C-alpha cells in the first residue's frame, strides 16, 4: 500500500495525532475510496502495516526519513511494514535467497510457502498470500516485471540504511552487529556496501559512526526519544 501511504504522509502535517490519520482516511476520504466500508478497510490495513501513530517509533522514524528521501520511499515503507508484519519478515529470505535476474513469480512463492508450512494455508489463501508478497516485493524493488517477475536489487539510500540500522538498534543490536542484523540484511547489500552506506549516512549526519579496526560504534544522536533508548526492544 505504498501509494496510499504516500497520499497520507504527503496530505497530513508531521505533527498530526493518530486519530487524525484515521479521520483523514475514513471521514475526509483522502484516499478517494468509493464507500465507507472500503475506507474503513484501508484505514485498518494502513494502521496494521505502518501504525499511523507518531507515538510509535517505527512510524515516527518513517515520517522523519520520508520527507528527506523520495528515492528511498519504497524501501522505507517496506522496512516499516516488515517491522509490523510477521509474515513479511518470515518470508523475506525467499526473495533475498533468489539470485538477481532469476524468475520469481507468485506460483514459486506459493510453492515455497507450502513447503515451509504444509498445513498452514488453504489453496485459495496460499495463492492470495503469494500474490500479496510478490506485490510487496515488487513495490519495494526486490522484483521487477508485471507478469514475468525477476529478482532485482532495491534502491537503498543513506536514509534507508539509517532507518534499517535504527530498527536493529531498537531490537537490541549494537556496534558491528547492527550491520549483521536481519534489518541490515533486508538492504540486500554486501558487508562492504553496508559499511559504505553507514559511512555516507554518518557523513550526511543521519547517524554517528566510529570505527577503529574491528570495533564499530553506531549511534543515532537526537533520533530516538529517551524512553526508546531505554527500551531498545522489538519495534512497536
3D architecture notes:
The protein is mainly alpha-helical and about 240 residues long. Among the domains are: about 1-55, no CATH class; about 85-150. Helices cover about 55% and strands about 5% of the residues. It contains twelve helices and four strands. The protein has a two-stranded antiparallel sheet. A two-stranded antiparallel ribbon has the order 3-4. It is globular. The mean pLDDT is about 90.
Q: Which structural class should the secondary elements be placed in?
A: mainly alpha
Going across the biggest sheet, name each strand in turn: 1-2
> Which spans have pLDDT < 50 for at least 5 consecutive residues?
none
Head-to-tail CA distance between termini: 19 Å
- SSE order in H/E notation? HHHHHHHHEEHHHEEH
- Integer-rounded radius of gyration: 18 Å
Q: Tell me the strand percentage band.
A: 5-15%
Mean pLDDT: 92
Describe the main β-sheet briefly.
2 strands, antiparallel
